[in-house]
Design brief:
537 residues; mainly alpha; two-stranded antiparallel ribbon; 2 strands; globular
Amino acid sequence: MTSSPAITRHGRQQRAPGADPAPRARRADRPWALIAACTLIAAVLALPLVFLLVEAQGDGLSTDAHLIFRPLTATLLWNTVRLTVTVTALCAVIGTAAAWCVERTDLPGRRVWAVLVVVPLAIPDFVISFGWASLSAWIQGFRGAVVVMTLGVYPLVYLPVAASLRGADPGQEEVARSLGTGRVRTFVRITLGQARGAILGGCLLVAMVMLAEYGAFEIVGYQTFTTEIFTEVNEAFSLPAASALSLVLVVLSLLVLGGEGVTRGKGRISRSGALTQRVSPPHRLGPARIPVLAGFVALAGLALGVPVGASVYWMVSGMPPAISGVPLLAAAGHTAVYGAAAAALATLMALPVALLAVRHAGRVRQFLERSTYLVLALPGVVIALALSYFTERYAGGFGYQTAPLLIVAYAIMFFPLALVGVKASLARVPAGLDDVARSLGQRRLAVLGRVTLRLAGPGLMAAFCLVFLMVVTELTATLILIPTNVQTLATQFWAYEKYLSYGQAAPFALVMIAVAAVPSLVLGRFFDRSADPRMTT
């Protein structure tokens, strides 16, 4: 008589003593298919970096050294570093202050401001630059770049910090106050300490955006590594010089990534009890209510009102009939199709990597996951050059300047953003539910489709929307890889703006903002729900 296996309280089968371990369990410990899929994805993502190394080796060390150690490189390094540091610091202050006022004070119209301060994320940086530069000659050079980029990317700090403050338990602040700690010291040591990880994560995104930006800097006439790389490729046709500058930019980006990891520390949200989250009464602004409210009005007016108002002004002041028909609709259609396809591809690629990271442990998992983030260190122009190089060198030009290649470029560029969203959503799905479904005889793929993906659906949609938003506002890679006789909203806007045809460029800017606003609002709602106490218990 054989004994039947018992079921533990975790839903796992407990075998009789002396029984051989099941082959299924051994296979679960070694997810070879998942590892193979993740390895293939990591290899695809590494193509741009391989391109740079191959190109550098082909030119020779002496040539690379000559191209890198030039006075121009020192100028570009100084311009890029000082602008990145300045804008990141300003975004950290503005984003954190706005998040604290919205989430922790009695600011009038808090829910309205929570939407308005996020909407600028839907406006491409080069559209913000266009709005300001077309109205005032004051917005030029370093000063103009600081104003434009700060107003364009501060929501990248606001969103995670707001979610962190909304999800934090006020118990530590109350204990600190009860021990006689002043309000300012409590805010600095406790409140900001809890949100430290979110602040540094937002600053990392800001810094990486700054290193990769092109359009906004070109409009205000500020020279950085990205603008010079694009010039070397499109005007000077010097691929060696572009590759050498790209290597310097990659090293700089890796330093940013490493520095963020070192300074992150252990700041995190904490709670005073298990499954307990209390909401403290909002801090009363008192006499500061009017100045704070005026600050929010100014922030919304500068970040949202100026670019939208400038676009409306130029469109009304003289819109020629040529842009009112098919070209605008065709550009919007191409943008939407490319964005949806790239978002779906990036989210699908992120799924196996996220599954390996969340459901399995080990050094292989850690290496594969972290290697995929290296693409953050590469600007769009480098990724476009790499794909162009490989199609020309190894595919005989097959696929060059076609829609599939452009979609693949988008998916590679924004894969880390998709991975963050997918990984966070899968981490919220209890692993025990998978075990229960497996114990009931469900196959692994059936469990993935019927249990895991259904529960992770909102997070997957947020990852899709984030990539879609980035694709709609992407410019540099699109300019290089756009199919012949095809235009997107970004490229057509750029073509008109380049020749100072503001009246023709304005409608494309407005449609671009409208298309990107939808995923921005979805992202804002997802951050709101993800930190809602009712959604975490």
